[in-house]
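Lecture 7 notes: from sequence to structure.
We start with the chain below.
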Amino acid sequence: MDKKAIIFIGIQASGKTTFYNQYFCELKHINLDTIHTRAREKAEIEACHAKGLSYVIDNTNPRKTDRARYIPAAKQYGYKIIGYYFRSSVKESAERNAQRENAVPRLAIAGTAAKLELPDYEEGFDELFYVSIKANVAEKTKNDNNQKSNLHFFEAKPWQKTSM
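Predicted C-alpha cells for the same chain:
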C-alpha cells in the first residue's frame, strides 16, 4: 500500500470530518480540534512518518502557507500527497454549524473563508480533488467519539482549474 498524506482544505462545517468518517476512518486522523496544539500535531505526524502510516490532516488549512507545514516532510518520507478541497459557502457552512453541538462562531467561518486560497499542484500535491456535498441526510448518527453527526452524500471530482 502506498503511504498517503491526505490534507483537507475548507472552511469550518464544510464536511471535512464527516468525509473523513465516511471514507478514511481506517487512516490516522490528525485534527487540531482534538489534539489542541501544533506540538502534538507535529508529534503525531512524525510518528506516522516513522511507522510509515497513512494519515489525514483534518484542519481548515486555508492558506498555502498552512499546507506548506505538512507537504515537504511528507515528501521527504516518500508519501503521496493528496489534497481535498471542500467547496462550501459561508451561508451553507453556518447552517450546518448551527446543528453542531460545539458550534464555532459565524465570524470564525467568515474569517477562514476570507483567507481561503485555492490549492494548486505547484504546492507539491500529487493529486487534488474538489469535494461538494450533494445532499444532507437528516438522520443523525454517532461517530467513534459518541458525537452526533449528519450523514452527507459527497461528490469528489479530480481537481481542474475550471472546477470553480
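Points to note: The radius of gyration is 15 Å. DSSP finds seven helices and six strands in the chain.
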